[in-house]
Amino acid sequence: MTNVIEARGIEKVFHNGDEETRVLKGIDLTLGQGELAAMVGASGSGKSTLLSIIGLLLRPTAGTLSISGERVDDLSERMRARFRNQRLGFVFQFHHLLPDFTAMENVAFPAAAPGGGISRAMRTRARDLLARVGLEDRIDFPAARLSGGQKQRVAIARALMNRPDLIIADEPTGNLDRESADRVLDLMREVNREEGATFLICTHDDGVAARCGRRLTLSDGRLTSNVRDPGGFS
Ligand code: ADP
Ligand code: MG
């Protein structure tokens, strides 16, 4: 089976004037299809930087990256953007929904061709996904009128719209109270189990990490631990 992520020797150095910050110092990471993995680490340890590199939003200073068996680190910007839109899904701490558009439109829009409308098939899939995340009664609500947890459910439905190979979630529960955070994580577990979606979730919440199938720890620019079934019950 092809691995969804194969990263080898990933390094990242940021330059600000004369100052150099070495954030990632050689990351090797393999993630198989259907995994639900959490990455934990102190604030500033480089979690978002690594997710941005894997999400093709940022290029590594060194190292190689393959997603679903395809080398992506040396692609042109245009091909990287295309790969990102077609093969990856994103969930961020701040959902970035369009407040005046409905839940359905927020899920379907990113899948529409630039300048194109939402096709009937996209509408149907967006509605199905919103039902899947428990929002069948909020499909036509403007995003601004949804609660924080509901908005994050819309963001998950949106991430699933293109049937991505990998869903990258950066602190998806960071802005939610305990109960909403648990429900959002339950939903990701369900989508993982029932649809085989592969997740890489970065979180500073140990409660979230304990309920993922694998916990990776990032410390001082290196992956220092890799524990399968950290909660001991999946
Ligand atoms: P985390 O998500 O684990 O909190 P980040 O990946 O956001 O950590 O940041 C890791 C380190 O890299 C921090 O010291 C941060 O200041 C630095 N950093 C992140 N992005 C940039 C940037 N664009 N330019 C310079 N330094 C950056
Ligand atoms: Mg971060």
Structural class: alpha/beta
Side by side, the strands of the main sheet go 6-7-8-3-9-10
Whole-number tally of structural domains: 1
Helix and strand pattern: EEEHEEHEHHHEHEHEE
User: What is the end-to-end distance?
Assistant: 22 Å
* Number of beta strands: 10
* Residue windows where pLDDT falls under 50 for at least 5 positions: none
Major sheet attributes: 6 strands, mixed
Write out the CATH superfamily name: P-loop containing nucleotide triphosphate hydrolases
> What percentage of residues falls in helices of 4 or more residues?
25-40%
Which architecture per CATH? 3-Layer(aba) Sandwich
Q: Hetero groups bound?
A: adenosine-5'-diphosphate, magnesium ion
The helix count comes to 7
Q: What would the CATH topology be? A: Rossmann fold
Task: Tell me the strand percentage band.
Answer: 25-35%
Q: How much is the radius of gyration in Å?
A: 18 Å
CATH class: Alpha Beta
Average pLDDT across residues? 92
Outline type: globular
Description:
By secondary structure, the protein is an alpha/beta fold. It has a single domain (3-228), classed as P-loop containing nucleotide triphosphate hydrolases (Rossmann fold), CATH 3.40.50. Helix content is 31%, strand content 29%. It is built from seven helices and ten strands. It has helices at residues 47-54, 77-87, 103-108, 120-132, 148-160, 178-195, 206-209, and strands at residues 3-16, 19-32, 36-40, 62-67, 70-71, 88-92, 166-170, 199-202, 214-219, 222-228. The strands form two sheets. A six-stranded mixed beta sheet has the order 6-7-8-3-9-10, with helices on both faces. The protein has a four-stranded antiparallel beta sheet with strand order 2-1-4-5, with helices on one face. Strand 4 and strand 5 form a beta hairpin. The longest helix is centred in the C-terminal third of the chain and has 18 residues, at 178-195. The radius of gyration is 18 Å and the shape is globular. It binds adenosine-5'-diphosphate and magnesium ion. Magnesium ion binds at residues 47-48, 170. Magnesium ion is lined by residues 47-48, 170.
